[in-house]
Amino acid sequence: MLPSGWSFPSRSGDRPAGQALAGAPTGREKSGRAGRLRLRWRPMRSLALISLLALPGCFYPADRGRALEAKVDRLGTDSAQIQAELKETREQLVATLPKIDEKVAEVTKALKGLDTAARRKDADIGVQFQKTVEDLAQLRGQVETYLHKITELETALAAQDQKLVAMQGEAALKEAEAKKKAEELKRPTDKKEFLALAKAKAKAGDVLLARQLYNEFMKKWAKDPLVGDAHFGLGETYFSESKCREALFEYGKVLQDFPKAESAPESYLRSSDCFAQLKMKEESRLALEELIKSYPKSAEAKTAKERIAELDKKAAPAKKGKK
């Protein structure tokens, strides 16, 4: 159903068969009618553009392989557990090594002081020395156990990484690394600082980590107006990799749900760029026209006018040639 007040334009051929053509519109009237038709079509074209940007099925796959992602998440969880256990074992090893040094020092000291110790009973010397040797052997056994466990854990971790690569390729491994970075990264409690951190990571080229942060921002402050800018930032990470379909979805979310966001005008501009890359010339131009109409005083609107003028300039010779 069309919104109230909107209608399809009349078709010029809707006249009864055999009707006389007397009083047919002149060239000027035709031109005026064409202009009115364009104006009447504009609201529907605007709606079509927003719908096109916002439909996940068109530009962003609704089902992104959820089963595969679940497996990757499980592998990521397993890897995190292995890494935690590996860290703990290494810490235990580090804590044990000084004890070994201490026992070795005790044995050395005991050997050097045999003359002094000779004054004591032989039985006491033997018991003390034997206990020190046993303690040292026990500590060495612990070290061997830790080293063996570390080797096993490192092997298991490498196997998990290989599974990730086999399942989704190099991209999955990079995502897992980004997830690990995100877990270790200290987050600001202030929402503006949080958003600034995500932007900084994206600017530094760490787009996977930036995406993690943008998505986390959207969940944490779901109803905040700044979510619109988070969608734009997320779209920019895709645009930087020429992933226009994914980028268009994010820009569409800004325009549909957060039209008052600071990034809304630029979302139209970026959408035009994406449509152009996808060889969708009409949609690319329409995005520029809607930008000028919706945000006429913005700097982006000025850019849009310049681009449209350039498009018209390029189209003019072609039309002239046809005449």
Automatic annotation (TrEMBL):
<feature type="region of interest" description="Disordered">
    <location>
        <begin position="1"/>
        <end position="35"/>
    </location>
</feature>
<dbReference type="GO" id="GO:0051301">
    <property type="term" value="P:cell division"/>
</dbReference>
<feature type="coiled-coil region">
    <location>
        <begin position="136"/>
        <end position="186"/>
    </location>
</feature>
<dbReference type="InterPro" id="IPR034706">
    <property type="entry name" value="CpoB"/>
</dbReference>
<dbReference type="InterPro" id="IPR019734">
    <property type="entry name" value="TPR_rpt"/>
</dbReference>
<protein>
    <submittedName>
        <fullName>Tol-pal system protein YbgF</fullName>
    </submittedName>
</protein>
<keyword id="KW-0175">Coiled coil</keyword>
<dbReference type="Pfam" id="PF13174">
    <property type="entry name" value="TPR_6"/>
</dbReference>
<dbReference type="InterPro" id="IPR011990">
    <property type="entry name" value="TPR-like_helical_dom_sf"/>
</dbReference>
